[in-house]
Design brief:
GO terms for molecular function: mannitol dehydrogenase activity; zinc ion binding. This protein is α/β, with parallel strands linked by helices. Helix content is 25%, strand content 27%.
Length: 959
C-alpha cells in the first residue's frame, strides 16, 4: 500500500484498554472510491453500547476502540460515479455498517437480522478484516449504493447489481431537510430501537394503551412515539421524581410508581402493549399482569436475566418479544416520521472532551435523556495540533518517554507560558506508577511549573508577555463557590482540577509541566518575583466539607475519617501535596495580567470554580496533572513542552530564576500556606520541622525568614551539618534519642510534619506548648494518636495541601524579596526516570528540577534529524546516541554501540567513518528504530566485526 493512500487523517477519541478511558487518537479512513461518499461527522449520540464495549464488558472489544453508532453529518466529498448524493447533503449512519446482502432478511431490508450477522459500525470486523471505527471521529467514508438503498432511491434491479458487486456496504440514511443534525443522531439507535418493535407489533393504532417501563434515552422516545401514534401512554417507574417530567414535559397520560401496590392493582389488565426499556434487573410477572388478553410485552432493555411464571404468559395468550435496532427501510421511515411530526429527542449537547464524564453520568442515569457529542465544534483539525513536546508515562511501570500532544487553544482569559523549569514531586512518581489506581495514561506529570509568558488572551489584565510565572498543583476549579471566591481554590466545593491527570471541565485529561508549554486560566498563574530564579520556584493541592466545627465528646474508640470529611475548609483537625515554571508564549484575547515573555509558574492546580468565598475552592481545585478538568478532560502536567492555563493561575517576579521558582509551586507553597494560616510569622516563636527533604528544607528557610527559632527533628545524624550550617537551623534533634526529646518537652509553639513515612505522633505532640499547633503536610498511611495528646494542652492538629492563588503569589513575592531559594539539582528530562527513583530513596538535596526548555529542544532536534532524509554528521550521531542510550540498560546492544562510538573519540583502535552504499556492514543497526532512515555510519573495530565483515555488537563484553 502506498504512503499516499494511508494517512492518519481521521481525528477521533478512542479507548486503549478495558479501563474504557477515551483520549485523542488518529487513524486513517479508507481512501474515497468512485462510488463512495465521504461525510464530515457533525454529531454523534452517546449510547450505553459505547460504555459496554469501551470497557470490554462482553469480552470481545478490539482496541484501540472508537465508539459511536449514532452518527449524523454532512456530505463533504463524493466519488466520480456517485449520482444520488451531492456535497452538502445531510446524512446519518446507525448501528451497523454491513451484512451479507443475500439472505432473506437482507433482501427484505431487515439487515439487523442478517443470517450471517450484521457488521456493526464500531468494533465489528469488516469483510476485508479491518476493525470498524465509529462516530467519535471527524469523518467517515461510506458507499453511495448503500446510502441510496437506505433512502429507498434505487430500483430493485440496481439493488441486485449492488449486491453482486461485492462493495463494502456501510448503511447511510438521508436526514430530512431542516431536521437538526444534533437531534437526528440519537434516533439512529435510541429512536429506531423502540420504533421498530412498535411498528412490527402494530402499536400505531390510535386509542390503544401503552405502558413504558423506564424513562431514559429509549423510554422517553417510546413515550413520544406512543403519543404521536395516538396511544394512551402510562409511564411505569420506580422514581416519583420523574412524574412531572413524564406528565408535563413528555405528555404521558398516566404515571405509576411500580412499588405502590394500589396503583399497580388499578392498572391490572388495562394495557395493550408494554415496552420495557430498563436494563437493571427487575421482576417481570408484575408487569405481565398489567397486559390485556393477547397483550404484547416488548423487551429492549438488557437485564441480566428474564424470569417469569409460565402462567403470566399462557393465561391470557400474552406475547413477550425482544428487539435491537432495525433494518434500513424502517430506519429511513422513522427519520421521515420524526421530521413530519416534529418529534425530537431530548438531548444534552457536549464537547467530545467531556465524553468520559458523560459516560459515567449516563451509567448513573444523570442525563435527560441522551448525550450528543458536538463533533464538528470540538473535534476540529485546525484546533488540534500535536504542538506540545513532553515526557509521559504510558503504563503503571511509570517509565517516562518522549510524547507529543496538543494543548487547548488559547482562550480569552488564558495565559500560555513556555515552561522553563519543572520541579519533581513525590506525586509525580505516585501518579506515574498508578499507586492510587486512578492514573490516566498517557500521563504527563509535573505540577511545580515555572516559566515565561509567551501569549495572553484578550481579557487577561494581570500578565503580559515575558512575565515570569508559575503554575502549581491545580489548573482549574469552579470559580463560583465560597472557597474559590476567597481565592482558596484548592478547597473548591466541586473539586480542584489538578495540573496533571485531572479531568478538566471540557473532559480532557490535564497534562503537567514535564512539557514545553502550558495554557492555563490566568487565575491559576502565579507571578514569580523579579530576579527570583525560575529553577527555584514551584506548587500542590486537594479536600471535602459541610460543617464549620465538630466537638467530639465521645470517649469510646471510634473512627475519625468519617467526621473529618464533614468539615468545611479551615475546620479544625485537618491533613500534601506540583511545579511548573516557564515563559508565556501566547495569551488569550481577554488576558490582561500576562503578556508574551512573562515568567510564570503553574503549581498543583490549574483550575477552580473562581467564584466561591474561600481559597480552598468549594467545588474542588482542578489539579495540574491527573485531575479532571471542568470539560471532563484529564489534566496533564509539567513534564511537557508547554501548558495552557487560565491566567488566574501565577506570576513569577522579574529576575527570580525560573528553575528556582518551580519547586516553590509545590514544596514551597505546601509549607508556606499553613505557616501563614497558623500565624507562624511571629519573630521569637519556636518551630519544629520533622523531616529535611523538599518540603522540610523550605519550612526551615521560611521559619528563619520569619524570625523563628527553628529545630530540625530527624532520624538521621547525617543531616545535622546541612541543617545547622547550610540552612541555618538553630537546633537539631535526633528523635530516637530520648534525652534530646525530653529536653525539648513542651518547648515548641509550632511543628510542621513533612515526613511521609509512617511514624508515631504522640512523641511529637508532647513537644508542643499549650495551644501549640501541629501541621501535617506529609502523607503517612494513617494518623493515630492518643486523645490526651490533643485534649490536654488545648493543642491543634491541622493539615494542608498546597495553597490558593493569593497566598501562592504572596509566597513567590516573599521569596524574591527575601532572597529565599530552594536548594535544587537541575537535570535534563532524559534523566527523569533515574531522578524519580533517587527521589524515592531521598537521594537529592532537596528538589530535582527539569530543564524542560533545553532538554526538549534537544529531543525535538534529534527527532527531526532522525526523521529527515539526510545523513548524520558523526558528532551529531554521537550526541544522539548518548541521548537515547541514557534510557537503555547498559547490557543492551545499543548501549554497547554507544560506548564503542564514544571510545572512538578517545581510543585509536576504534574508528567511525561514513558509509556510502554498503549497508551489509550495518545490518545489526537496523534492529533499532533510529536507523530506519539511511544509516550513515560504519563502526569498525576489530573486536566488534566478525569474519564476514559484519558488526557483532555482542562479541566484546569488555565494552
Amino acid at each position: 500500500m502506498s504512503s499516499e493512500s494511508v494517512k492518519d487523517d481521521c481525528l477521533a477519541w478512542a479507548a486503549r484498554d478495558p479501563s474504557g478511558v477515551l483520549s485523542p487518537y488518529k487513524f486513517n479512513r479508507r481512501v474515497l472510491g468512485k462510488d463512495d461518499v465521504s461525510l464530515k461527522i457533525t454529531h454523534c449520540g452517546v449510547c450505553y453500547a459505547d460504555y459496554v464495549w469501551s470497557k470490554n464488558k462482553h469480552g470481545d472489544s478490539r482496541y484501540p476502540l472508537v465508539p459511536g453508532h449514532e452518527i449524523a453529518g454532512i456530505v463533504k466529498e463524493v466519488g466520480s460515479s456517485v449520482s444520488n448524493f451531492k456535497v452538502g447533503d445531510h446524512v446519518g449512519v446507525g448501528t451497523y455498517g454491513n451484512s451479507c446482502r443475500e439472505c432473506v432478511h437482507c433482501n427484505d431490508r431487515n439487515e439487523i437480522s442478517c443470517e450471517k450477522g450484521p457488521i456493526f459500525t464500531f468494533n465489528g470486523i469488516g469483510s476485508d478484516g479491518s476493525i470498524a471505527k465509529g462516530g467519535y471521529s471527524s469523518h467517515i467514508v461510506v458507499h453511495e449504493t448503500d446510502c441510496a438503498l437506505s433512502a429507498g432511491i434505487l430500483h430493485h434491479k440496481n439493488k441486485i447489481n449492488a449486491k453482486a458487486s461485492g462493495v463494502d456496504m456501510m448503511y447511510c440514511f438521508r436526514i430530512p431537510d431542516g431536521y437538526p443534525l444534533a437531534s437526528a443522531a440519537p434516533l439512529l439507535c435510541a429512536g429506531i430501537t423502540v420504533y421498530n418493535p412498535m411498528m412490527r407489533h402494530k402499536m400505531n393504532q390510535p386509542g390503544k394503551s401503552l405502558g413504558v417501563i423506564g424513562l431514559g434515552g429509549l423510554g422517553h422516545m417510546a413515550v413520544k412515539f406512543g403519543k404521536a401514534f395516538g396511544l394512551k401512554v402510562t409511564v411505569l417507574s420506580t422514581s416519583i421524581s420523574k412524574e412531572e417530567e413524564a406528565l408535563c414535559a413528555l405528555g404521558a397520560d398516566n404515571f405509576v410508581i411500580t412499588s405502590d401496590q394500589e396503583q399497580m392493582k388499578a392498572l391490572h389488565k388495562s394495557l395493550d402493549f408494554i415496552i420495557d426499556t430498563a436494563s437493571g434487573d427487575h421482576p417481570f410477572d408484575p408487569y405481565m399482569s398489567l397486559l390485556k388478553t393477547a397483550g404484547v410485552f416488548v423487551l429492549v432493555g438488557l437485564p441480566s436475566e428474564v424470569k417469569f411464571h409460565p402462567a403470566s404468559l399462557n393465561i391470557g395468550m400474552k406475547t413477550i418479544s425482544g428487539s435491537v435496532t432495525g433494518g434500513t427501510r424502517v430506519t429511513q421511515e422513522m427519520l421521515d416520521f420524526c421530521a413530519a411530526n416534529k418529534i425530537y429527542p431530548k438531548i444534552e449537547v457536549i464537547p467530545i472532551q467531556y465524553v468520559n464524564e458523560a459516560l459515567e453520568r449516563m451509567i448513573k442515569n444523570d442525563v435527560k435523556y441522551r448525550f450528543v457529542i458536538d463533533i464538528d465544534s470540538s473535534l476540529n483539525s485546525e484546533s488540534v495540533k500535536d504542538d506540545c513536546l513532553a515526557w509521559a508515562a504510558r503504563d503503571p511501570s511509570g517509565v517516562l518517554s518522549p510524547y507529543k500532544f496538543s494543548r487547548r487553544a488559547l482562550g480569552k482569559d488564558d495565559v500560555s507560558l513556555k515552561i522553563t523549569h519543572c520541579g519533581i514531586c513525590y506525586a509525580d512518581a505516585v501518579m506515574s506508577k498508578n499507586k492510587y489506581g486512578d492514573s490516566r495514561y498517557p500521563l504527563v506529570p509535573g505540577h511545580e511549573i515555572a516559566g515565561i509568558v509567551k501569549e495572553v488572551g484578550s481579557c487577561v489584565s494581570n500578565f503580559k508577555v515575558g512575565d515570569h510565572v508559575g503554575v502549581g498543583t491545580y489548573v482549574n476549579s469552579c470559580r463560583e463557590c465560597e472557597h474559590c471566591n476567597d481565592r482558596d481554590e484548592i478547597s473548591c466545593e466541586k473539586g480542584a482540577i489538578f495540573t496533571f491527570n485531572g479531568i478538566d471541565t471540557d473532559g480532557s485529561i490535564t497534562k503537567g509541566g514535564y512539557s514545553s508549554h502550558i495554557v492555563v486560566h490566568e487565575t491559576y498563574c502565579f507571578r514569580i518575583p523579579d530576579g527570583y530564579p525560575l529553577a527555584s520556584a514551584a506548587l500542590c493541592s486537594a479536600l471535602h466539607k459541610s460543617l464549620d466545627f465538630i466537638i467530639d465528646t465521645a470517649s469510646g474508640d471510634h473512627p475519625f475519617d468519617p467526621y473529618m470529611s464533614l468539615l468545611k475548609t479551615a475546620g479544625v483537625f485537618v491533613l500534601v501535596g506540583h511545579e511548573i515554571a516557564g515563559i508565556v508564549k501566547e495569551v488569550g484575547s481577554c488576558v490582561s495580567n500576562f503578556k508574551v515573555g512573562d515568567h510564570v509558574g503553574v503549581g498543583t492546580y490549574v483550575n477552580s470554580c473562581r467564584e466561591c468565598e474561600h481559597l480552598q475552592c468549594e467545588k474542588g481545585a482542578i489539579f495540574t496533572f491527573n485531575g479532571i478538568d471542568t470539560d471532563g478532560s484529564i489534566t496533564k502536567g509539567g513534564y511537557s513542552s508547554h501548558i495552557v492555563v487560565h491566567e488566574t493561575y501565577v506570576r513569577i517576579p522579574d529576575g527570580y530564576p525560573l528553575a528556582s521558582a518551580a519547586p516553590l509551586l509545590c514544596a514551597g507553597i505546601t509549607v508556606y500556606n499553613p505557616m501563614m494560616r497558623h500565624k507562624m510569622n511571629q519573630p521569637g516563636k519556636s518551630l519544629g520541622v520533622i523531616g529535611l527533604g523538599g518540603l522540610g528544607h523550605m519550612a526551615v528557610k521560611f521559619g528563619k525568614a520569619f524570625g523563628l527559632k527553628v529545630t530540625v527533628l530527624s532520624t538521621s545524624i547525617s543531616k545535622k551539618e546541612e541543617a545547622l550550617c547550610v540552612l541555618g537551623a538553630d537546633n537539631f534533634v535526633i528523635t530516637s534519642d530520648q534525652e534530646q526529646m525530653k529536653a525539648l518537652h513542651k518547648s515548641l509553639d509550632f511543628i510542621i510534619d513533612t515526613a511521609s513515612g509512617d511514624h508515631p505522633f504522640d512523641p511529637y505532640m508532647s513537644l508542643l506548648k499549650t495551644a501549640g499547633v501541629f501541621v501535617l503536610v506529609g502523607f503517612p498511611s494513617e494518623v493515630k494518636f492518643h486523645p490526651a495528646s490533643l485534649i490536654f494542652g488545648m493543642k491543634t492538629v491541622s493539615g494542608s495541601v498546597t495553597g490558593g492563588t493569593r497566598v501562592t503569589q504572596e509566597m513567590l513575592d516573599f521569596c524574591a524579596a527575601n532572597k529565599i531559594y530552594p536548594k535544587i539539582e537541575v537535570i535534563p528530562i532524559q534523566y527523569v526516570n533515574e531522578a524519580l527513583e533517587r527521589m524515592i530513596k531521598n537521594d537529592v538535596k532537596y528538589r530535582f528540577v527539569i530543564d524542560i526548555e533545553s532538554s526538549l529542544k534537544l529531543l525535538d532536534f534529534m527527532i527531526n534529524t532522525v526523521s529527515g532524509n539526510h545523513r548524520f554528521d558523526p558528532d551529531i550521531l554521537l550526541v544522539f546516541l548518548f541521548f537515547l542510550g541514557s534510557q537503555v540498560k547498559s547490557e543492551t546492544a545499543l548501549q554497547k554501540l554507544i560506548l564503542a562510538i564514544f571510545c572512538s573519540r578517545i581510543h585509536p583502535k576504534i574508528e567511525v567513518t561514513p558509509i556510502q552504499n554498503d549497508l551489509s556492514m550495518v545490518n545489526h543497526l537496523w534492529k533499532f528504530p533510529m536507523f530506519y532512515h539511511q544509516p550513515s555510519l560504519f563502526l569498525h573495530q576489530i573486536d566488534l566485526v566478525n569474519k564476514n565483515g559484519q558488526i557483532d555488537l555482542f562479541r566484546n563484553d569488555n565494552l
